[in-house]
Amino acid sequence: MNIRRIMIIGTMVVVISFGGTAFKGSIASASPVVKFSPSDTTENDDLLEALNQSSDEELYNSLQEGKSLHDIAADQGGDIANVIELQMAQLTQQLDDRLYSGSITAEQYAAYKEELKDIVEQSVFTSFG
Predict the structure, then answer these.
(1) Cα distances (Å, whole numbers) of residue 58 to 54, 75, 81
(2) Per-residue pLDDT reduced to its tens digit, 68-102
(3) Is residue 128 part of a domain?
C-alpha cells in the first residue's frame, strides 16, 4: 500500500464523518469520489517531509503499529500543522471537484467546507491500526 492510498483512506474517513453531522438525511446520495493516481508523487513527498519520514514503507509501518499521524509527527519531529494543511488542500480539491461535477449542491459544499478544518484536525489524532 502506498502513501497516496493511506491518505485516501484517511480522507475517506473524514468525508464519511460529514454524514453524521450537518447533513442528516441529505448526504445519502453524496458518496466520495476516490481517484488513485500512483504517478503523483508530489503529495507523497510533501506528506513524508511533513511527518519527517524517509519512505512510504516507514510511514506505512508506523500506521500499522497503530500510531496516528500526530503520533508519527511527534515521534519524528515532524510538522503536524503542515500535515493538516496538506489534508485540507486535498479535501478542498475533492469538494471543489464534487461541486463542479454537480454531485453536491452549493449549500452542501458550504456546510462541508465549514466543518472541514475541525474534522481534519480530529483525524490526525486517530489511529487506524
Answers:
(1) 7, 13, 20
(2) 999 999 999 999 999 999 999 999 999 999 999 99
(3) no
